[in-house]
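Progress note, project year one: complex with adenosine-5'-triphosphate.
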Amino acid sequence: MSENCNAEVSEKKNLNFVEQIVFNDLQEGKNGGRLNTRFPPEPNGYLHIGHAKAICMDFGVAEKFGGTCNLRFDDTNPVKEDTEYVDAIREDIHWLGFDWADREYYASDYFPQLFDLAIRMIKEGKAYVDDQTSEEIAAQKGTPTRPGTNSPYRDRTPEENLDLFMRMNAGEFPDGARVLRAKIDMASDNMHFRDPIMYRIITKYPHHRTGTTWKVYPMYDFAHGQSDFFEGVTHSICTLEFVPHRPLYDYFAQELAKGGDYCPRQIEFNRLNLTYTVMSKRKLLQLVQEGLVAGWDDPRMPTISGMRRRGYTPQSIRNFIDTIGYTKYEALNSVSLLEHAVRDDLNRVATRVMAVVNPVKLVITNYPEGKVEQVSMENNPEDPQAGTHSMPFSREIYIERDDFMENPPKKFFRLAPGAEVRLKGAYIIKCENVVKDADGNITELHCTYDPETLSGMPGSMRKVKGTLHWVSASHAIDATVRLYDRLFNVENPAAETERDFREMLNPESLKTVTGVKVEPFLAENATQGAKFQFQRIGYFTPDYDSTAENLIFNRTIALKDTWEKVKS
Ligand code: ATP
Ligand code: MG
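Model obtained:
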């Protein structure tokens, strides 16, 4: 192992294929033993869970082998880019638990060097200005089995090309009037080698960093490999759709490396695709702009910011990505796997509380009026360190309407006339009487309690089958909950070519329930980012809209996966 990378990894065991390549390169002392990766988002949208997979790889492999990872904004297209996205991307990467220290770069930092390289290539007869429209250029491209045709402008002299290119950048020509192309091979087997476009004219949109300095902007293929080179990136890890771009990546990188000791290398892995959602930034932007969701951070969005707002933890996202792994084969990953990882992590960290979503009043007729007892509730049975909190118990409480049935089937172990249940953390009660209004709706349940059965007391050894959650009526706080479900009701919206993706939105993806009764503990403790398990219901977190006066909770995930059942 080279001395530059103080790697913790000394054996090739359990490495994914990218890590194996990096391991081998380091062992062979390539690039002077340096390891430098980069995460290269285009600031034209918020990051989604697919980007999280790339982030975990780019930052993860650097961490694992003692290298570094740059954050590089790939900002070569001012038409769609914005500083709002830059800020959001920074926040999301930090939240996932990764850091780029002072290595924050922008492809636009290299505009001067890229321009110089273009000029050099023009002078060397390796690039030319084409006056054709993009349609004409596309028509000459040929097909994978049929060679393309040369542009009529292909044999311009370097002097003429240089003059035109300088004037393109001086703003003399309108957008789309001319492009700069690399002069490679219109008959190449690789379509990307058929005189790819290097620069286009954009005058109508100022750049978020360079303003109106430039009138020509480099294409992705002419910017990415070179930016890697300028930064000293050794391993440029990206997704499989870039495989056909790799020869061109190498071609331009070699224009700079010139066969020297150092040259960046592109390695591709499979994208993350998730069921019941879309991952295209263009489509996500459309959902936002058309108001079909409440913003990029709507808790139903597959964005990192949406998942954060919904209550997902960074650890659960990272665990999920570990589970699916990195391969060379495209796959559609089940969102159930992600949800499983979320439940798993929240089970570990969430504070257990009581909330009654659909309340019915229950009166304990033999409990003294005005008496209040504080009963002790475990904060998290998975974590003995988490301690307890107290919860008031009194004569009138709320339970879930669904937890009572007047004519229950045999295996209904909840409350029914004459039946006994335990109130979690408190007493065993017995239903004596059902009170109804004139229309026959149940308004109150009258019960008696057994004073010998307080949880944790000697008499409490008596067992009953059902245990219900509850809150004391006079102490309960009203809250609103937002129940989220999958944003789309088809498994793979991107695969449905006949229908517009917006037609596949799940109309039930958000239900708002008001008048939810929560225990008073939440008045003080429902702070931003806090994670709760509403016992027997699911995991919840306060929404950004939540205030002390108006508590609003997002359901992160139900306790059980109901979809798997519905499907079968
Ligand atoms: P665009 O269509 O705008 O290029 P993009 O999703 O490729 O969208 P980028 O900002 O260019 O967005 O992506 C930054 C990095 O994230 C790239 O290296 C890209 O390969 C990676 N990436 C994007 N989507 C996924 C995904 N679904 N799974 C894994 N990595 C992804
Ligand atoms: Mg991209």
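The longest strand covers residues 428-436.
DSSP finds 14 helices and 25 strands in the chain.
No further modelling is planned for this target in the current period.
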